[in-house]
Protein backbone atom coordinates (compact mmCIF):
# COMPACT_ATOMS: atom_id res chain seq x y z
CA UNK A 1 0.00 0.00 0.00
CA UNK A 2 1.28 3.50 -0.85
CA UNK A 3 2.39 5.85 1.86
CA UNK A 4 -0.57 8.20 2.67
CA UNK A 5 1.65 11.28 2.30
CA UNK A 6 2.67 10.14 -1.20
CA UNK A 7 -1.01 9.76 -2.09
CA UNK A 8 -1.74 13.29 -0.83
CA UNK A 9 1.23 14.65 -2.77
CA UNK A 10 0.20 12.83 -5.98
CA UNK A 11 -3.42 13.92 -5.68
CA UNK A 12 -2.39 17.57 -5.21
CA UNK A 13 -0.17 17.39 -8.29
CA UNK A 14 -2.81 15.66 -10.44
CA UNK A 15 -5.75 17.88 -9.43
CA UNK A 16 -6.93 20.79 -11.54
CA UNK A 17 -9.07 22.25 -8.79
CA UNK A 18 -8.85 21.73 -5.02
CA UNK A 19 -11.26 22.73 -2.25
CA UNK A 20 -10.01 22.70 1.34
CA UNK A 21 -12.14 22.78 4.50
CA UNK A 22 -10.20 23.82 7.59
CA UNK A 23 -11.04 23.84 11.29
CA UNK A 24 -9.51 24.79 14.61
CA UNK A 25 -6.94 21.94 14.36
CA UNK A 26 -5.17 23.82 11.55
CA UNK A 27 -4.28 26.61 13.98
CA UNK A 28 -3.35 24.30 16.88
CA UNK A 29 0.31 24.28 15.79
CA UNK A 30 0.18 28.10 15.76
CA UNK A 31 -0.55 27.89 19.48
CA UNK A 32 -4.31 28.52 19.25
CA UNK A 33 -6.37 26.12 21.32
CA UNK A 34 -9.21 24.19 19.71
CA UNK A 35 -12.69 24.39 21.19
CA UNK A 36 -12.95 20.71 21.97
CA UNK A 37 -10.44 18.44 23.65
CA UNK A 38 -8.64 18.35 26.97
CA UNK A 39 -7.45 21.96 27.05
CA UNK A 40 -10.30 23.29 24.91
CA UNK A 41 -11.54 26.84 25.28
CA UNK A 42 -14.91 25.44 26.35
CA UNK A 43 -13.45 24.54 29.74
CA UNK A 44 -12.99 28.12 30.98
CA UNK A 45 -16.04 29.84 29.51
CA UNK A 46 -19.43 28.86 28.15
CA UNK A 47 -19.27 30.06 24.54
CA UNK A 48 -22.85 28.97 23.87
CA UNK A 49 -23.98 31.55 26.45
CA UNK A 50 -21.71 34.32 25.16
CA UNK A 51 -21.48 33.76 21.42
CA UNK A 52 -25.00 34.71 20.52
CA UNK A 53 -26.80 37.83 19.39
CA UNK A 54 -29.33 37.74 22.21
CA UNK A 55 -26.58 37.89 24.86
CA UNK A 56 -24.86 40.66 22.94
CA UNK A 57 -27.98 42.83 22.86
CA UNK A 58 -28.52 42.27 26.61
CA UNK A 59 -24.92 42.84 27.65
CA UNK A 60 -22.50 43.91 24.88
CA UNK A 61 -19.66 44.63 27.34
CA UNK A 62 -19.57 41.06 28.70
CA UNK A 63 -19.62 39.52 25.21
CA UNK A 64 -16.86 41.92 24.13
CA UNK A 65 -14.87 41.05 27.24
CA UNK A 66 -14.83 37.40 26.12
CA UNK A 67 -13.77 38.36 22.58
CA UNK A 68 -11.01 40.64 23.84
CA UNK A 69 -9.80 37.79 26.10
CA UNK A 70 -9.65 35.45 23.07
CA UNK A 71 -7.99 38.10 20.87
CA UNK A 72 -5.33 38.75 23.51
CA UNK A 73 -4.47 35.04 23.58
CA UNK A 74 -4.10 34.76 19.80
CA UNK A 75 -2.77 38.18 18.80
CA UNK A 76 0.84 37.03 18.50
CA UNK A 77 0.05 33.72 16.75
CA UNK A 78 1.58 33.26 13.33
CA UNK A 79 0.52 31.04 10.41
CA UNK A 80 2.15 27.59 10.38
CA UNK A 81 3.33 25.20 7.64
CA UNK A 82 -0.25 24.21 6.84
CA UNK A 83 -1.43 27.82 6.27
CA UNK A 84 1.69 28.59 4.19
CA UNK A 85 1.55 25.28 2.32
CA UNK A 86 -2.02 26.01 1.20
CA UNK A 87 -1.17 29.54 0.03
CA UNK A 88 1.82 28.17 -1.90
CA UNK A 89 -0.37 25.58 -3.65
CA UNK A 90 -2.89 28.36 -4.46
CA UNK A 91 -0.10 30.30 -6.18
CA UNK A 92 0.38 27.33 -8.53
CA UNK A 93 -3.13 25.99 -9.14
CA UNK A 94 -6.83 26.57 -8.50
CA UNK A 95 -7.47 26.17 -4.77
CA UNK A 96 -10.22 27.51 -2.52
CA UNK A 97 -10.27 27.45 1.25
CA UNK A 98 -13.43 27.28 3.33
CA UNK A 99 -12.38 27.91 6.90
CA UNK A 100 -14.34 27.62 10.11
CA UNK A 101 -11.57 29.51 11.88
CA UNK A 102 -12.03 33.11 12.88
CA UNK A 103 -8.34 33.79 13.62
CA UNK A 104 -7.49 35.22 10.17
CA UNK A 105 -4.32 33.12 9.79
CA UNK A 106 -5.12 31.89 6.25
CA UNK A 107 -5.41 35.51 5.16
CA UNK A 108 -2.15 36.34 6.93
CA UNK A 109 -0.43 33.45 5.11
CA UNK A 110 -1.48 35.01 1.79
CA UNK A 111 -4.48 32.87 0.81
CA UNK A 112 -6.78 34.85 -1.48
CA UNK A 113 -9.50 32.46 -2.49
CA UNK A 114 -10.86 32.22 1.04
CA UNK A 115 -14.31 31.93 2.58
CA UNK A 116 -14.29 32.60 6.30
CA UNK A 117 -17.47 30.71 7.09
CA UNK A 118 -17.75 31.95 10.67
CA UNK A 119 -16.28 35.39 10.08
CA UNK A 120 -13.10 36.97 11.39
CA UNK A 121 -12.39 37.90 15.00
CA UNK A 122 -10.27 40.91 13.89
CA UNK A 123 -13.19 42.49 12.04
CA UNK A 124 -15.91 44.64 13.55
CA UNK A 125 -19.38 45.15 12.08
CA UNK A 126 -21.43 48.23 12.94
CA UNK A 127 -24.93 47.08 13.91
CA UNK A 128 -26.31 50.40 12.60
CA UNK A 129 -24.52 51.33 9.34
CA UNK A 130 -23.07 47.80 8.66
CA UNK A 131 -19.55 49.19 8.10
CA UNK A 132 -16.91 46.43 8.37
CA UNK A 133 -13.34 47.21 9.50
CA UNK A 134 -10.36 44.95 10.07
CA UNK A 135 -7.74 45.74 12.69
CA UNK A 136 -5.44 43.22 14.36
CA UNK A 137 -5.41 44.98 17.72
CA UNK A 138 -7.28 45.13 21.02
CA UNK A 139 -9.90 47.74 21.86
CA UNK A 140 -9.03 50.32 24.49
CA UNK A 141 -12.62 50.55 25.71
CA UNK A 142 -15.45 48.07 25.38
CA UNK A 143 -17.98 47.99 23.94
CA UNK A 144 -16.52 49.88 20.97
CA UNK A 145 -18.58 52.31 18.86
CA UNK A 146 -18.53 53.13 15.14
CA UNK A 147 -16.40 56.10 14.10
CA UNK A 148 -18.84 56.83 11.25
CA UNK A 149 -22.26 56.74 12.93
CA UNK A 150 -21.56 56.05 16.62
CA UNK A 151 -23.53 52.80 16.39
CA UNK A 152 -22.55 49.80 18.51
CA UNK A 153 -19.83 47.62 16.99
CA UNK A 154 -19.95 43.82 17.19
CA UNK A 155 -17.35 41.21 16.26
CA UNK A 156 -17.90 40.20 12.61
CA UNK A 157 -18.41 36.53 13.43
CA UNK A 158 -21.33 34.15 13.09
CA UNK A 159 -22.97 33.38 16.42
CA UNK A 160 -24.86 30.29 17.58
CA UNK A 161 -28.25 31.95 17.02
CA UNK A 162 -27.30 33.16 13.54
CA UNK A 163 -27.24 31.40 10.22
CA UNK A 164 -24.75 31.35 7.37
CA UNK A 165 -26.41 32.86 4.26
CA UNK A 166 -27.77 30.24 1.85
CA UNK A 167 -25.92 31.98 -1.00
CA UNK A 168 -22.59 31.21 0.75
CA UNK A 169 -23.51 27.52 1.19
CA UNK A 170 -24.56 27.36 -2.48
CA UNK A 171 -21.35 28.93 -3.69
CA UNK A 172 -19.30 26.42 -1.64
CA UNK A 173 -21.37 23.53 -3.02
CA UNK A 174 -20.62 24.76 -6.53
CA UNK A 175 -16.90 24.92 -5.80
CA UNK A 176 -17.08 21.33 -4.53
CA UNK A 177 -19.01 20.25 -7.65
CA UNK A 178 -16.20 21.70 -9.79
CA UNK A 179 -13.23 20.33 -7.83
CA UNK A 180 -11.44 17.02 -8.16
CA UNK A 181 -9.89 16.94 -4.69
CA UNK A 182 -11.50 17.87 -1.38
CA UNK A 183 -9.28 18.16 1.71
CA UNK A 184 -10.69 18.20 5.25
CA UNK A 185 -8.05 19.50 7.65
CA UNK A 186 -8.19 19.69 11.45
CA UNK A 187 -11.92 19.79 11.96
CA UNK A 188 -13.94 17.59 14.33
CA UNK A 189 -16.74 17.39 11.78
CA UNK A 190 -19.30 18.10 14.50
CA UNK A 191 -20.23 21.63 13.47
CA UNK A 192 -22.84 22.13 10.73
CA UNK A 193 -22.92 23.07 7.91
CA UNK A 194 -19.19 22.41 7.48
CA UNK A 195 -19.52 18.73 8.33
CA UNK A 196 -22.05 18.39 5.51
CA UNK A 197 -19.51 19.46 2.84
CA UNK A 198 -17.46 16.25 3.14
CA UNK A 199 -20.54 14.10 2.54
CA UNK A 200 -21.57 16.33 -0.36
CA UNK A 201 -18.11 15.90 -1.92
CA UNK A 202 -18.41 12.10 -1.61
CA UNK A 203 -21.90 12.13 -3.13
CA UNK A 204 -20.38 14.01 -6.08
CA UNK A 205 -17.71 11.31 -6.30
CA UNK A 206 -14.79 13.57 -5.41
CA UNK A 207 -11.59 12.21 -3.90
CA UNK A 208 -11.67 13.20 -0.22
CA UNK A 209 -8.64 13.21 2.08
CA UNK A 210 -8.93 14.02 5.77
CA UNK A 211 -6.00 15.00 8.00
CA UNK A 212 -6.67 14.95 11.74
CA UNK A 213 -4.72 13.86 14.82
CA UNK A 214 -7.81 11.91 15.83
CA UNK A 215 -10.35 9.50 14.38
CA UNK A 216 -13.42 11.55 13.33
CA UNK A 217 -17.09 10.43 13.14
CA UNK A 218 -17.14 10.58 9.31
CA UNK A 219 -13.67 9.32 8.41
CA UNK A 220 -14.87 5.92 7.16
CA UNK A 221 -16.71 7.66 4.31
CA UNK A 222 -13.58 9.33 2.97
CA UNK A 223 -10.97 7.94 0.58
CA UNK A 224 -8.02 8.52 2.86
CA UNK A 225 -7.59 9.46 6.53
CA UNK A 226 -4.14 10.68 7.58
CA UNK A 227 -3.85 10.58 11.35
CA UNK A 228 -1.18 13.27 11.89
CA UNK A 229 -0.69 16.90 12.72
CA UNK A 230 -1.59 19.04 9.69
CA UNK A 231 1.42 21.35 10.05
CA UNK A 232 3.76 18.36 10.06
CA UNK A 233 2.04 16.88 7.00
CA UNK A 234 2.29 20.12 5.00
CA UNK A 235 5.92 20.64 6.06
CA UNK A 236 6.76 17.31 4.42
CA UNK A 237 5.11 18.01 1.04
CA UNK A 238 7.14 18.99 -2.00
CA UNK A 239 5.97 22.27 -3.55
CA UNK A 240 8.11 22.09 -6.70
CA UNK A 241 5.41 21.28 -9.19
P1 LIG B 1 -13.00 21.60 16.94
O1 LIG B 1 -12.32 22.28 18.09
O2 LIG B 1 -14.35 21.07 17.14
O3 LIG B 1 -12.08 20.39 16.42
C1 LIG B 1 -10.73 20.52 16.19
C2 LIG B 1 -10.27 19.24 15.48
O4 LIG B 1 -8.91 19.40 15.12
C3 LIG B 1 -10.36 17.98 16.33
O5 LIG B 1 -10.97 16.96 15.55
C4 LIG B 1 -8.91 17.62 16.64
O6 LIG B 1 -8.70 16.23 16.68
C5 LIG B 1 -8.19 18.21 15.44
N1 LIG B 1 -6.82 18.67 15.67
C6 LIG B 1 -6.32 19.34 16.74
N2 LIG B 1 -5.05 19.65 16.54
C7 LIG B 1 -4.70 19.17 15.31
C8 LIG B 1 -3.51 19.19 14.53
N3 LIG B 1 -2.40 19.80 14.96
N4 LIG B 1 -3.54 18.60 13.32
C9 LIG B 1 -4.66 17.97 12.86
N5 LIG B 1 -5.81 17.92 13.55
C10 LIG B 1 -5.83 18.53 14.76
O7 LIG B 1 -12.92 22.64 15.78
P2 LIG B 1 -13.81 22.87 14.49
O8 LIG B 1 -14.14 21.56 13.89
O9 LIG B 1 -13.10 23.87 13.69
O10 LIG B 1 -15.18 23.50 15.01
C11 LIG B 1 -15.27 24.31 16.13
C12 LIG B 1 -15.72 25.73 15.98
O11 LIG B 1 -14.84 26.45 16.80
C13 LIG B 1 -15.63 26.40 14.65
O12 LIG B 1 -16.87 26.92 14.40
C14 LIG B 1 -14.62 27.56 14.79
O13 LIG B 1 -15.17 28.76 14.33
C15 LIG B 1 -14.40 27.69 16.25
N6 LIG B 1 -12.99 27.86 16.69
C16 LIG B 1 -12.10 28.56 15.94
C17 LIG B 1 -10.77 28.67 16.36
C18 LIG B 1 -9.81 29.46 15.50
O14 LIG B 1 -10.22 30.38 14.81
N7 LIG B 1 -8.53 29.09 15.48
C19 LIG B 1 -10.34 28.06 17.52
C20 LIG B 1 -11.28 27.36 18.28
C21 LIG B 1 -12.60 27.26 17.84
ZN1 LIG C 1 -21.68 52.72 11.88
Describe the 3D structure.
The mean pLDDT is 93. With 241 residues, the protein is of the alpha/beta class. It has helices at 4-14, 47-50, 53-58, 60-74, 81-90, 105-108, 166-178, 194-203, 230-235, and strands spanning 17-22, 94-99, 114-116, 119-126, 132-134, 153-157, 181-185, 207-211, 224-226. The strands form two sheets. A six-stranded parallel beta sheet has the order 3-2-1-7-8-9, with helices on both faces. It contains nine helices and nine strands. Zinc ion binds at residues 126, 128-129, 131, 146, 148-149, 151. The site of nicotinamide-adenine-dinucleotide has 28 residues, from loops.
List the keywords.
alpha/beta; three-stranded antiparallel beta sheet; 18% strand; elongated; binds nicotinamide-adenine-dinucleotide; binds zinc ion
Summary?
The protein is of the alpha/beta class and 241 residues long.
Can you lay out the helices and strands and say which pair or pack?
Blueprint: H1 4-14, E1 17-22, H2 47-50, H3 53-58, H4 60-74, H5 81-90, E2 94-99, H6 105-108, E3 114-116, E4 119-126, E5 132-134, E6 153-157, H7 166-178, E7 181-185, H8 194-203, E8 207-211, E9 224-226, H9 230-235
Parallel strand pairs: 1-2, 1-7, 2-3, 7-8, 8-9
Antiparallel strand pairs: 4-5, 4-6
The structure holds nicotinamide-adenine-dinucleotide and zinc ion.
